[in-house]
Amino acid sequence: MRNRLLYLSRYLPWLLLLLGLDAVSALLLWLSEAEDFGVLVPLILLGTVLLFFVTAFVLIRVEQKRENAFRAFLNNPDLINEENLIRTVSAAKRESIRLLGTVLREKDLACSRAKAAAEDYEEYVEAWAHETKTPLSLLTMVLDNQGEEIPAPAAFKLEYVRSRLQEYISQILYYARLKSGRKDYLFEYVDLNDCIGEVLDDYSLLLKEKNFRITVQVPELSVFTDRRGIEFLLGQIVSNTVKYCTVMSGNTADAADTEKYDSADREKRPELKITLEQSETEDVLRIQDNGIGVKECDLPYIFEKGFTGDSEDSGKKATGMGLYLSKKMADDLKLGLEAASERGAGFEMAIRFPRV
Predict the structure, then answer these.
(1) Could you give the CA distance from residue 266 to residue 248 in angstroms, rounded to a whole number?
(2) What is the rounded CA–CA span in Å between residue 196 and residue 194?
(3) pLDDT for the residue numbered 257
(4) What are the φ and ψ backbone dihedral angles of 203, each rounded to 5 degrees?
């Protein structure tokens, strides 16, 4: 009904024009002193109004039919819908409709090919990542079972390589997962401390190599989320901390023995602190470090794909994907993710879990 009134409003100027002609006709009849003036004028007005509404009704039906055919043609520009649309337009517009149909069908074909290529690429990346896990698992098994037979420096380097490979494979798998139209998240109540413990265990070698002092002050809490997703999110934040925190010593053997550092050195050691703030509406997990931090001008862009800032040596090795994937994962899990930093005074990430 609303559409019909909208169509009718387009023809109102014609009604006004017809009524103007009726007024002129009535004036001429009055000037000619016609005997039936009082009867003729109302009949003329009534005929004009009836003629207008009948004509407008027919034209509105034609326009609605044309619009429906055009919408069907846009949704599916095949030859059948093209012919149906051509029957509703004038001969002058038919060639343009045929040209439009040809262009739209070519675009649809190109989009279908691009979609198929993207799906093939996604399947290949996922298959590659899963296949890479086999030699990675073999390396893990060798290090676990025969680690004592391997010289300590070599074993450490192999374990370091294994840890970094695992991180990069996880990144590419979750990147494919985030870009996929199929999401396999399992939302349930998970113990937040268990997730934090598993992530710290996964990155224990890197944290040990960088000589981190770790503080976890999180009470027992279950959050409603996807376990794999939140562990990936936490892992990317911890990995980012490891990359950009100050390194006290390049000697891993010395780093294992924290008693060798005096009080001044302890203050300079890289630190990872995880705390929890609770309110009536949400739980906020804060992950802080005392690293180099981020410039104020760079802070709004840290979640953009490929952004690495100018983090000196660490930036040269960064891909700019970690925090980008973190933000995407947080959005998928409906969690808030915020960053705060001051250059030279550390970096903080806050994950906001809404209360369910």
Answers:
(1) 9
(2) 5
(3) 41
(4) -100, 15
Tell me the residue length of the chain: 356
- Please give the Cα distance from 38 to 310 (Å, whole number): 91
Nearest to 231 by CA among 252, 207, 203, 210: 203
Q: Which residues lie across from 285 on neighbouring strands?
A: 276, 351
* Pair of tokens at residue 103: 């262009």
Q: Which helix (H) or strand (E) holds 124?
A: helix 91-146
Q: What are the boundaries of each domain within the chain?
A: 2-89, 190-356
Question: How large is the average pLDDT for residues 335-345?
Answer: 88
Structure tokens belonging to residue 233: 């999110």
For residue 211, the model assigns a pLDDT of 86
Residue 342 phi/psi, 5-degree rounding, is -135, 130
**pTM greater than 0.70:** no
Q: What is the dihedral of CA 105, 111, 116, 120, to 10 degrees?
A: 160
Whether residue 5 has pLDDT greater than 70? no
Least confident of 104-113, 142-151, 290-299, 347-356: 142-151
Q: Which residues contact 317 (CB under 8 A, 6 or more apart)?
A: 243
CB atoms within 10 A of CB 237: 25
Residue with tokens 């074993």: 155
Compute the average pLDDT of residues 129-138.
78
What class does CATH assign to 190-356?
Answer: alpha beta
Pick from 50-59, 79-88, 182-191: least confident: 50-59
Lowest mean pLDDT among 61-65, 97-101, 103-107, 237-241: 61-65
Please give the backbone phi and psi of residue 265, each rounded to the nearest 5 degrees, phi first. Answer: -65, -35
Q: Would you give the distance in Å from CA 347 to the centre of its chain?
A: 24
